Amino acid sequence: MSHLSSQAETDMAVAWSARWQDFVALLKPRVMTLVVFTGLCGLLAAPGSIHPMIAFTAILCIAVGAGAAGALNMWYESDVDALMRRTAGRPIPAGRMNPDDAAAFAVTLAGGAVLIMGLAVNWLAAAVLLASILFYVVVYTMWLKRRTPQNIVIGGAAGAFPPVIGWVAVTGSIDPLAALMFAIIFLWTPPHFWSLSLYACSDYARAGIPMLPVVAGEQATRRQIWSYTLLMVAATLAPVALGELGVLYAATATVLGGVFIAGALKLRRTGQISDAKRLFAFSILYLFLLFAAIVADRLVLA
């Protein structure tokens, strides 16, 4: 009896120790920033009009849904997070938050985001939002990440949904440019994340996660980064070839793609960790600028 009482007191202490900053941390705000931005770009690039309040609601739902997916990821991976220096300070492995509280918080946010998206915007946007959450949590986090070095390749689809959701919020349909934005992020994810994994390799090895550098080695990873970079840059030029975007975007995509290719080639040749860090940092800026160019080009064409 005393043991049960002690356990209950411990659980209550953990619950009360969670601060509002810990709940924010569960949402992975850095990742959410990119998700919200690409979702907003999809919304702004879409043809037609949308009421500002509905647009705000759509973006808010994308943000909350992404945060909920991140929180569920942290809940499920708290055991491996505790083994990695990069993630050991997160709320659950650090002991500041009860896992059950984190899971309940995440599920509530996910359900609310999908329901409000459906009621306030449209149900196709809600369905795509739900698909993105389930893909990240179930397909990537629970199924792929601990089983295959291709986790990032297949799981990259999870991060590619936001511009499609933004587009569908306006149009109620999935059109060619929305599909191309999805493809760009899908192909961007491997070189982006494998650059990170090159200098976080020891963390992944310690946690038993079969990231590509752990399983195939650094040289093979650098080759894959190079290959996917070429595919990604080709995909970024497809909207121009198909007449979806014009000169402004074409010039931006060409310059940014050239810089990305140069960085990937340098990393392939040198194998220096500093070059991996540099490519990872640039990949984030690259996606922001590329999607900003999509919106700017569409506004010019309009």
TrEMBL record:
GO terms for cellular component: plasma membrane. Keywords: Cell membrane, Heme biosynthesis, Membrane, Transferase, Transmembrane, Transmembrane helix. This is Protoheme IX farnesyltransferase. It comes from Hankyongella ginsenosidimutans. Carbon 2 of the heme B porphyrin ring is defined according to the Fischer nomenclature. Converts heme B (protoheme IX) to heme O by substitution of the vinyl group on carbon 2 of heme B porphyrin ring with a hydroxyethyl farnesyl side group. It is an enzyme of class 2 (transferase). It is found in: Cell membrane. InterPro entries: Protohaem_IX_farnesylTrfase, UbiA_prenyltransferase, UbiA_sf. The chain crosses the membrane at residues 31-48, 54-76, 102-120, 126-144, 151-170, 176-201, 225-242, 248-267, 279-296. It comes from the Bacteria. Its EC number is 2.5.1.141. One of its GO terms (biological process) is heme O biosynthetic process. It is a multi-pass membrane protein. The keyword Cell membrane applies. Its main location: membrane. GO terms for molecular function: protoheme IX farnesyltransferase activity. It catalyses: heme b + (2E,6E)-farnesyl diphosphate + H2O = Fe(II)-heme o + diphosphate. Belongs to the UbiA prenyltransferase family. Protoheme IX farnesyltransferase subfamily. Gene3D superfamilies: UbiA prenyltransferase. Pathway: Porphyrin-containing compound metabolism; heme O biosynthesis; heme O from protoheme: step 1/1.
